[in-house]
Sequence to fold (223 residues):
Amino acid sequence: MQAGGLTATELFCRRGDRFLFGSLSLRAAPGDALHLVGPNGTGKTSLLRLLAGLLLPTPPSGAIEWQGTCGYLDGRPTLDEHLPLSEALAFWTRLDRAAEVPLERLGLAALTDIPVRYLSTGQRKRAGLARLIGQGADHWLLDEPLNGLDREGAALVEALIAEKRAAGGAVVVASHQPLALPSAQVLDLRKFLPSPAGRGRGWGNDVSAEPPPQPLPAGEGLS
Fold:
């Protein structure tokens, strides 16, 4: 049965003592691409982490509903830095029991005996893609997927996204770099910034109505 995509309603996000966005709703049906845009600090990464279940929405948020599974890719490949690439990937393959990883296509076949910590930025990005593909998730969340990649690597990411969409997956992407996403929806997070209009809804400039401040996790930035 084809996975049904993503629906999120009335999302609010606060990091530390600062609201990033509020009253944000979105939908991505099977085969859709959603491109998140906006300057640094508008909450693109935070929104992706909310959708991935890695952050909790701020009250009075609505719901995030996935039909099918989702995989998340950011700048960290989530691989053991001290293991050779083949062993680091094999660890997750045993857990995921999912898709076979096309190492040759990803340009990683000749690097399998190299410890992950010695990989270049672009090679680490490709390793992250290998990990994502190996999950076999129905849908993808991608945070700056072109960072560190050359033109050939960027073309590979675009091809992988197109194939995921053709197979019925929904893809949500945050990228400052030009990215070929035919027929993609564009969601500009600047439209959901706090404003006086937010008063009375638990956010915006009405501090007395806002939820208590939530501490920013160590090492977390705003994007």
